[in-house]
Amino acid sequence: MLGASEPEKGLGRDVKVAEVLANAEKKIETAFRTSLWWKQVSRHALSVAFGSLGQFEVALRHALRSYDLRLRLIGPQHPDTLTSMHNLASVLRELGKLDEAPVR
């Protein structure tokens, strides 16, 4: 993730975590074009990271995508899918949007 954000461009200046994450976010689709596995892992990590920064709308976008990918790749009962479901519920709770939670 950090490699995808090109940290060397930040040498000599303060780089905020949000900048690094935003840069990584832009590169997910191309960096992991052929690997849904790494795409879902990255999306989950970005959702958690953006959520920890209080950027819940951005976190929601990644939480939804990670959950969807994990459902398709490893199924609804896999611990990683359940982790994504929990993360998604947490983000929706923060946004006051629990009624928008996907029903499975």
Q: How would you sum up this structure, described in words?
A:
With 104 residues, the chain is mostly helical. The chain has a domain at 32-100. Helices cover 65% and strands 0% of the residues. It is built from 4 helices and no strands. Helix 1 (17-31) runs antiparallel to helix 2, helix 2 runs antiparallel to helix 3 and helix 3 packs antiparallel against helix 4 (79-95).
Total count of helical runs of at least 4 residues: 4
- Strand pairing plus helix content: what structural class? mainly alpha
Estimate the global geometry from the Cα principal axes. flat
Overall residue-averaged pLDDT value: 82
Low-confidence stretches: 1-7
Helix content class: 55-70%
Would you count the extended β strands for me? 0
Q: Cα-atom Rg, whole angstroms?
A: 14 Å
Give the N-to-C terminal Cα separation: 30 Å
The oligomeric status of these chains comes to single chain
N-to-C series of helices and strands: HHHH
Please describe the biggest sheet, giving its number of strands, its sense, and whether it closes into a barrel.
none
Strand content: under 5%
SSE diagram, text form:
Blueprint: H1 17-31, H2 36-52, H3 56-74, H4 79-95
Short overview:
By secondary structure, the chain is mostly helical.
Provide key terms for this protein.
104 residues, mainly alpha, disordered N terminus
